[in-house]
Amino acid sequence: MTRSRFDLEDLFFPVEFRPVYFKTKDEENSPGNQSAATSRSAGGTAESDSSPEEPSDVQKRLMELPEDEVLEENGQESTPEQDGQIEPISRYKAIVDCEREYVFKVVSESYELITNQEAVDIGERAYGKLFPDASNHGNFNTLSVIAPGTRAHCHIDLVHESFDFAVWEQDEYIPYLRVTNSYNSTHALKYRIGFVRKACTNGVIFDDEVVNVNLPHTRSKLEGEDVSEVVELEADVERLRKLEENFVDYLKQLQEIRVPKLYTSPVAARALDLDFGVDSDDEDRRERERRKAKEFNREIQTRVDRYYPDLGPNAYAMFNVISDYATHREKAKERLRINTFQRRTGDWIRDFIGQQDDPHFGLDSYVEEELEMFRTAQALG
Predict the structure, then answer these.
(1) Least confident stretch, 26-40, 162-176, 232-246
(2) Which of 109, 151, 255, 287 qualifies as a FRET site for 72, CA 20 to 30 Å off?
(3) According to the UniProt record, where is the region Disordered (predicted)?
């Protein structure tokens, strides 16, 4: 089973820290009368001018270096330039992709990396705690890899097909562990539990508290140690079992709730928190958003035609429609939203089930705004 177009090995590339240098320039030669010495790092963070490398008797202005000019240590304290010199900044360092010579971010000297390999190793250890027999059933499979072209962050889904459970006799699900890591501080190291339907590989993220890791990125005390072995890892087996029970119960409840075809696109838009600006005052934007709404409706109706005949016009079929859309994104930019969409799908299940307790619940009021949005876009048949 796999729904990934990427290889896991693509994310196990070498990364390292390198010193950061800034070009200094005499104040008298710089434009204007600027005495402040500040600059943005390659990662976009403002840095102070209080670096100890600056001569105290000469005013300098720090000049920002492009990412491709972040230099390796060359054994010299500074590099002479025609209009200044390259000065090292001792309290900061750059995280660099060694294969592509790409700078992910400039960080403080206390920052330590969690590599993708380490993150996956910890994930496999966590999976083993949740399923003690996992080590007796061969290696883990990679269900999916989500990453941008820069490889600055990633979501990696680990699955063991030996561990599945049935909602109905012919409808089986497999729990998977989503490993999230980044080299540019956009995502903290995180492990989330999801469920994937065997028949179609549609996935949904359902919990982010089953696995907890105590491993801050500033971990100098672990220097030279195997991070995957020394990390403080909590895997709540009882919570996972309860999660599986609740998931099955939710899906069975969804099967009892009728969702006529007219409401399918509005319900999907609400579940995924999509708001198309179909009534924008800007004419060009309004037309773009209406086209997007029509395309979204087309994609949803294609999936409705796939699931409704077999599963019936109910919320369980609607869940499959939504999770299918969330999981199978083809364009590179859209694939980066899979994690968000799958988490929203999990949130929607709980929300929609909870709405049924309201005696005044009705689909017309539940998706009132979404219905109007699609009607304005003339996207409903």
Answers:
(1) 26-40
(2) 151
(3) 23-65
